[in-house]
Amino acid sequence: MTASPKVWAILAMSTLESTQALTSFDVHGAANPSSAPSRRPGAMVSAELAMHLLRQMVVIREFEVRCMQAYQDKKIGGFCHVYIGQEAVAVGCTAAIRPSDPMVTAYRDHGHALARGMSANACMAEMFGRVDGCAKGKGGSMHMFDREHNLFGGHGIVGAQIPLGVGLAFACKYEDEVIHERKSDRVALAFLGDGALNQGAFHEAMNLAGLLNTPAVIICENNGYSMGTSIHRGTTMGHNLAAKAAAYGIESAVVDGMDVLSVYESMSLICDRARRESRPAFVDMRTYRFKGHSMSDPRKYRTREEESQYEAGDPITTMKGRMIEAGMLTNEAFKSILREARAEAKASVEFAESSPVPAITELHTDVFVEPWGRYTGSSDPKMLGGARREPSFRAIENSEGLS
Ligand SMILES: Cc1ncc(C[n+]2csc(CCOP(=O)(O)OP(=O)(O)O)c2C)c(N)n1
Ligand SMILES: [Mg+2]
Fold first, then answer.
1. Which atom in ligand 1 lies closest to the alpha carbon of residue 289?
2. Judging by beta carbons within 10 Å of its beta carbon (0-12, 13-18, 19+), is residue 324 exposed, middle or buried?
3. Quick check: 287 and 215 in contact, CB under 8 A?
4. Do residues 262 and 36 touch, judged by C-beta distance below 8 A?
5. Which of 98, 130, 164, 290 is a plausible cystine mate for 125, CB 3.0–4.6 Å?
6. Distance, CA 184 to ligand 2 centroid (Å)?
7. Per-residue pLDDT of the chain (403 residues; tens, 9 = 90+)
8. Using CA atoms, how far apart are residues 347 and 121, in angstroms rounded to an integer?
9. Residue 230: enclosing H or E segment and its boundaries?
10. Domains in the chain and their CATH numbers?
11. Ramachandran bin of 150, using left for φ above 0, alpha for ψ from -120 to 50, beta for the remaining angles
């Protein structure tokens, strides 16, 4: 299916309109959101891609609804932070990169995992703590990891993943240019929440990214709140995060994260430049989480009126409406996308329930790499091969362990 020029024009117009629309409940502040790179809107989005973006957002939404139900039924333990409202960000960003580009994110990570290509089954089994989960059930909601799809977590410590993202970008560049002696054309995406802007790790990572020219695209999923604290209460220059990036010599853009086409098109340009010039970029991705911070959050720090304003800009409804208007989608076709996504999410719960819990003997596997020997469950020197000794470079280089 190929879209006609008319279709492009309608997509283009809607993209621009929604990029400029800020509600009276602008939790992010008054900065002009038009600093996203100029683009030829619509020219980059085929009908197939539009359908893919819509489908992925719907799958994530339905998956998250099931997670909420399963959590309330006490089938999921620990923490659970759903991505409802922010789907356009993970979907648009992952569509804009290549499978070989690594990415890393924080704990609100189910959407990134699914968008990156993880199956709903592997993701839900991880939520349930079962062996068929992506991390063998040992990571849970906050630690979605998928080496095959170049997703390096899922991290629960606020800000901890940002240096890892810059490290991934550095590793790509080093591997391509120093080891394989060719121009690197990979980028790494590092996602963070607005709450992580105040962590030292953010500033250290930004400094190194700028200093070492790493092709890291650092994306702040700015949903206006870190737990119950609004960005303006806890963060300087919340209205203009570009200032933070400028301090490290890093170019930045403000992108409408409630509009999947805007996200895709802006991120395509930003990532292309990062590949071409081997430079980092910072993105203030303006979005909103429709639900609470985690599963037990009465949301007393914001009004229901503000929530409904943002819900009116639901990324799925927006994309659906735009595609119907462009003649790419009918209401019937949308219903069938919804039916399929619901069935996939429901099946993933059944899959997770039928997957075994990990054996107790698994408790200490995947903790240390082999040269260090298997963890024996105590600080007994046996773990170190019989005699406690400080690690030496020689021992590590020769992979002979510490015996
Ligand atoms: C270093 C650290 N400090 C505090 C916490 C507790 N904590 C968990 S989530 C969170 C808020 C983070 O908000 P934000 O980065 O905006 O992400 P969002 O939840 O909006 O996706 C905090 C403070 C933590 N996990 N790690
Ligand atoms: Mg936040």
1. 20
2. middle
3. no
4. yes
5. 130
6. 32
7. 333 333 333 333 333 333 333 334 567 764 444 444 444 445 578 999 999 999 999 999 999 999 999 999 999 999 999 999 999 999 999 999 999 999 999 999 999 999 999 999 999 999 999 999 999 999 999 999 999 999 999 999 999 999 999 999 999 999 999 999 999 999 999 999 999 999 999 999 999 999 999 999 999 999 999 999 999 999 999 999 999 999 999 999 999 999 999 999 999 999 999 999 999 999 999 999 999 999 989 999 999 999 999 999 999 999 999 999 999 999 999 999 999 999 999 999 999 999 999 999 898 888 776 655 555 555 554 444 544 444 444 434 444 332 2
8. 8
9. strand 229-230
10. 5-365 (3.40.50.970), 367-403 (no CATH)
11. left
Which ligand has an atom closest to residue 228 CA?
1
CA nearest to 316, candidates 119, 87, 64? 87
**Strand blocks (E) in 158-214:** 188-193
Asked whether 112 lines ligand 1 (CB < 6 A), one says: no
Amino acid 101 reads D
Ligand 1 pocket member 161 (CB < 6 A): no
Helix, strand, coil percent values for the chain (each to nearest 5) = 50, 10, 45
Q: Are 286 and 258 in contact (CB under 8 A)?
A: yes
- Ligand 1 atom closest to residue 197's alpha carbon, by position in its atom list: 15
Assess whether the C-beta atom of 288 lies below 6 angstroms from ligand 1: no
Distance separating alpha carbons of residues 401 and 285, to the nearest angstrom? 45
CA-to-CA distance for 229 and 231, rounded, in angstroms?
6
> Distance (Å, rounded) from C-alpha 322 to C-alpha 308?
20
Phi, psi of 191 (to 5 degrees): -95, 145
Nearest atom, ligand 1, residue 81 CA = 19
Candidates 112, 226, 291: which one to mutate for ligand 1, based on the most atoms within 8 Å of Cβ?
Answer: 226
Regarding the beta carbon of 292 and ligand 1, being less than 6 Å apart is answered no
